[in-house]
Amino acid sequence: xxxxxxxxxxxxxxxxxxxxxxxxxxxxxxxxxxxxxxxxxxxxxxxxxxxxxxxxxxxxxxxxxxxxxxxx
Length: 72
Known about the structure:
There is one protein chain. By secondary structure, the protein is mainly beta. The chain contains one helix and five strands; from the N terminus they run E-H-E-E-E-E. Helices cover about 15% and strands about 50% of the residues. The longest helix has 10 residues, at about 10-20.
């Protein structure tokens, strides 16, 4: 499980809408998204624990919108 914190307005809005607890569903070295084009992998597809419709790709190293607070 990951605990995320929003860094940007977009990230903070996503945390407010879906919560901050996520589980990793998939992990890849590369993803093709506009948000992550300059990010270094690996990337994780995460799903919100409290709201299953809340899911997204994040960079596990220096995501532009989220900071990983805890990883268990």
